[in-house]
Amino acid sequence: MPAMDNDWGLVADIASSVRSGRVSAISLVNKSFELIEKNKSYQTIIAVLKKEAVMRAKMIDRAVAKNEDPGLLAGVPFIAKDNFLVAGADTTAASNMLVGFNPPYQSSVINRLEAAGAICVAKANLDAFAHGASTENSDFFVSKNPYDQNRVPGGSSGGSAAAVALQLAPFALGSDTGGSIRQPASFCGLFGLKPTYGLVSRSGVVAMGSSLDCIGPLCSNVTDAALILDVISGKDELDSTTIDKDRSGYSKGLKPAPLKGMKIGLIKEYMGEGIQTEVKQAVVSTVDKLKKSGAIVSEISLPSLPLALACYYIICPAEVSSNLSRYDGVRYGFSADEATNLEESYLLSRGRGFGMEAKRRIMIGTYVLSSGYYDAYYRKAQTVRTKIINDFNRAFADVDLLIGPVAPTTAFKIGSKNQDPLAMYLSDVMTVAASLAGIPAASLPIDKDNDGLPIGLQLMTSQRQDKRLLSAALSIESMTGYSL
């Protein structure tokens, strides 16, 4: 179980110590390596980038010695989910299909972090191709929850979340398609941020659902997440879907939003049946604290939310089917050497390279896009998506912030949902709507259940209001007093 105090301290303070020469970058990356080795039993890490990290750390220390600016994040170690392309390491997306794939370039997010002086020390485990909510779909091994090794850390960014909770590094990168940052953050007691769709470049990140994928940080606190967002956000010529960042930035001048008079909507559809008692109680308790602090909290209904999960599991597999079509055994990825013709190559390479969940999503996606079913399923799902977006827009006309649980339960036991894909998909029931709407959303730890497992509160604001979300999160973080 992780220590309750954050041993690293704030990311800004770490970087300041390196810039001043009080702490060396090489000592920080060595600390990460030692912690990774010490916590191997949690199975969070796929690859350690020792050679590359040491080289970058020495470069930063030399820059400090020469009084050169080593960057805003000078010497800060971080861990990237293994669907990010990183120079010097294979990118596998935790799938047998990509074993041995050494990328010819880096993702834009990694480039921006490195330009700011941060150092990638390792690649984290995930559900293969980010398909899952538990990290049990990794083709390599199952990551374990830092609070209970018999439980999952969530998914698909479970390795990243567990790594930060174990304090292997001050922060990690994750990707969120339907809740894959927020749900593991909730399960591991972290602040996990899914920014507005397009605020962070997806260039160089293995695609899952292109109209849904978002890149964001997993951190021990809100302040660190704001600083990381400052570095990684903004337009990128390599990703045409990117948007401009807030001109004032996200960390500079960030203050807790005044809770007095803040209009907050508690999502009615997320507080009904099927929610673990302690999760519901934690949310209600937080609402009571918000009211005592002067916030105006009212119950808000979004009528389309009960359709969000079904809508997501039509649109997302359709995009998965399209994105995974490139893995054909010819261009790159696993190729069956014994194939004697093109059709055999397709069948053997894809049959062996993809795991069960990837195959399941390919089949669903191909079906809903096929002739005769496109209008019946995919087109209708897109219509429902528009209704969900409109419901959120109407809600944000009345409130500043929407809140509710992140997931129906705390971390569940490893293997408990393996044989029931629908039960596993229900883990995303409270997170997919924000992804479909493209709005910023986050998980903030607020309490623990009777087994000592973390409980997260989900926060949502309207598109491009990421700074408002961070400011509100900072206020609630201070109010609840929860720490890693």
Describe it for me?
The protein has 484 residues and is of the alpha/beta class. The protein is built from 15 helices and eleven strands. Helix 2 runs antiparallel to helix 3 (50-65), helix 9 crosses helix 11 (356-369) and helix 9 (308-323) packs across helix 12 (374-396). It is globular.
Keywords:
484 residues, 11-stranded mixed beta sheet, alpha/beta
Please provide a brief summary of the model.
The chain is α/β, with parallel strands linked by helices and 484 residues long. It is built from 15 helices and 11 strands. It has helices at residues 11-20, 25-38, 50-65, 108-115, 158-165, 182-188, 222-232, 277-292, 308-323, 342-353, 356-369, 374-396, 421-425, 432-437, 466-480; strands at residues 45-48, 77-81, 119-124, 171-176, 191-194, 214-219, 263-267, 296-300, 401-405, 441-448, 454-460.
Q: What's the total helix number?
A: 15
Beginning-to-end CA distance, first to last residue: 11 Å
The global form is: globular
How many beta-strand segments? 11
Mean pLDDT over the residues:
96
Structural class by SSE content: alpha/beta
**In what range is the share of β-strand residues?**
5-15%
Pick out the low-confidence regions: none
